[in-house]
Predict the structure.
Amino acid sequence: MNGDGFAVRAEGLRKRYGDKDALDGFDLRVEQGTVHGLLGPNGAGKTTAVRILSTLVRLDSGHAEVAGADVVREPALVRARIGLTGQYAAVDEILTGRQNLEMFGRLFHLGARRAALRARELLEQFHLEDAAEKGAGQYSGGMRRRLDLAASMILAPGVLFLDEPTTGLDPRSRLEVWDTVRDLVARGTTVLLTTQYLEEADRLASRVTVIDRGRAIADDTPDGLKNTVGGSHLDVVVRETADLPAAVRAVRRVCAGEPLVVDVERRVQAAVTDRVRALTDMARTLQDEGVAVEDIGLRRPSLDDVFLRLTGQTSGTAAAPGTTAVPDEKEVAA
Amino acid sequence: MSVALTVDPSRERPHGRLFWALADSGNVTRRYLTHFLRQPVTIAWQLGFPIISVLLYGFVFGEAMKVPGGGDDGDYKQFLMPGMFVMTMAFGFMNTAMAVVTDASKGVIDRFRSMPMAPSAVASGRGVADLVVACAELTILAATALAIGWRSSGGLLDTALAFALLLLLRFSLIWVGVYLGLVVPTPEAAGGLYAVAFPLTMISSVFVAPSLMPDWLAPVAAWNPVSSTGTAARELFGNPGAGGGTWVEQHAVLMAVVWPLAISLVFLPLAVRRFKALSR
Ligand SMILES: Nc1ncnc2c1ncn2[C@@H]1O[C@H](COP(=O)(O)OP(=O)(O)O)[C@@H](O)[C@H]1O
Ligand SMILES: [Mg+2]
């Protein structure tokens, strides 16, 4: 396909709705054969980007190539080479799982016989054989998602778009979907996955683009991203507000990163590198200082942490109230 | 054991676009007809409603209603049956609209649009399914009507023409349904369309001849497309109450062709525009 090894190449994508820029000069490169995460809060422009790349929506300006075809000039070619799983599982709820896959297969122009064969294959691959003759309306959220994914995979597309595939799923279904995605990539599909969860991007993607207000604000490996936020956080909640300065001093001594203080929650947190050592050292230090601790623990970084570091603001999805960076120890004491 | 999967453009070439437009449309039709096999209850509902209406209106109102120029009892039944046929056709647009808005809100239309299938098949496939269902509805309604004593005294050709006009009305309403299905945001909101559908069928010749309505309402009812098809069907079936003094009523058969064509000419482009606007 692309000589340069990129399955998706988008430059300067712009899309305006009314007086709001859903995409405002968005750039993206997705390497062939990888899972690429598109990470951003609600309203950042993830769905708009996916809809433009899958030819559902026309771009206002910019340029995008998917699987070697131009989304504006060769939409039919793009459609023959991609799979799309939108934000909601787009299956016919009255038809059975098998009937769904056969219908989509025929509409992909496989012909009745090959569509039936392919349906059987996919039901097996996505572990839906037992539910094959049941109406999709009776499926659990995770099963419906898998059927939806199977429908996207009928032509074994070169590029698969997954728009928040696990939003609204219970933890078990989420794990199932993650397994499925890994399996697909092992078979050579390139996946562009949008998500609001850093953890999801971390688990699946080999590269992550962070999107905020229609722009790509970072493009890095998950490890690189976590390094910008400092990997895991040590999180300490003290019993008395008066103990906060002492806790901040202890955190400064033990942790690598700058402490963050949430006054109203009597919480101090900071990035750590060696997770277990930081935790034991911290517990000991606080005890030595005579600080009464209500809670202490390690927290994995979230999208909010990434946003805080990249933009100086929380993403707005789960903003912690009253969060302030700590410029100087004295200010906390004051 | 994997099936060959990459789309082979050479496989597509021997068949032109028209072939695929028809094949895709056929597969979409098949999808909707399979719904009825999967949910026989829906069939019972969809066909049961007109049958119950026929029995209900025929027996409950039968004695109380007047037919212009008629006298014997039983006349109202003869008058009403073609009205029931038209009403069933007219209400059909709700089914179309509901199917389209359900698909749109569940992302199924987006899935179709992201596939290498003919975009026109989304609507044409639904339209064909609607016409198949309409034929089944008319068959069952006519059988029920015959069973309770309704008769067509028109010739075979006239009778067939009457049914063709009924289907023509249903055909034009496919585009109204597709358009509304793309305009209305949710299936729940689509339920509100009944508020529009009811007066549209009531203020017509379905239940009462316009000549028996108040002066200000009569012309509205007479010019209602539903009335034209109803009056034309009565005329062709040789049922009572077909006539009326006004020009539209005098030219009901003509208007039963003109109205559906006009509706199609307005709503087909509107539906297409709305569909294209999905990619804006
Ligand atoms: N069809 C639309 N009409 C109007 N505004 C839209 C439309 N689609 C998206 N937007 C706006 O564009 C922005 C980006 O939306 P979206 O791409 O859905 O974000 P995300 O998927 O990251 O949550 C939001 O502010 C949203 O309100
Ligand atoms: Mg979205």
